[in-house]
Amino acid sequence: MKKSSYYRLWFIVFGFWFLFLSGVLTQLTGSPGVLQLMRLKHLKVQREKQIVDLKNDIQRLEYDAKRLEKNSVVQEQEIRRVLGYAAKDEIIFDFSSVDQLH
User: With a threshold of 0.70, does the pTM exceed it?
Assistant: First the structure.
């Protein structure tokens, strides 16, 4: 076997191997390729982290909901926070009208 045909054979083998890994031959081989595999694994890790964060948010919200259902002090604080009401002993500062001082 000539040296040039030997190199050509290896070039063809590595070319097909690269095409197989890249996923270009997906229609023929059915394999999405290694690059797609790496992208999907990275996406899976991101989604798993997102799931953990969402589960933590759910636990926190369930805890807050239970506190709001059972504790009247917490209910009062939340009402004042959301609606802007003040308690009888609270002092209110109004910083919205700064131009009146001049």
Answer: no
Confidence of residue 6 (pLDDT cuts 50, 70, 90): confident
Q: Output the six-digit token pair for 65.
A: 């909901």
Q: Which two tokens stand for residue 49?
A: 């982290």
- pLDDT tens digits for 40-68? 899 999 999 999 999 999 999 999 999 99
How many residues belong to the chain? 102
Q: Residue with structure tokens 């595999």?
A: 37
Cβ atoms within 10 Å of 47's Cβ, excluding its own = 10
Q: Which of the 8 DSSP states describes residue 88?
A: T
Token output for 63: 């805890």
CB 52 within 8 A of CB 44: no
Burial 58-71 (b: 16+ CB within 10 A, else e): eeeeeeeeeeeeee
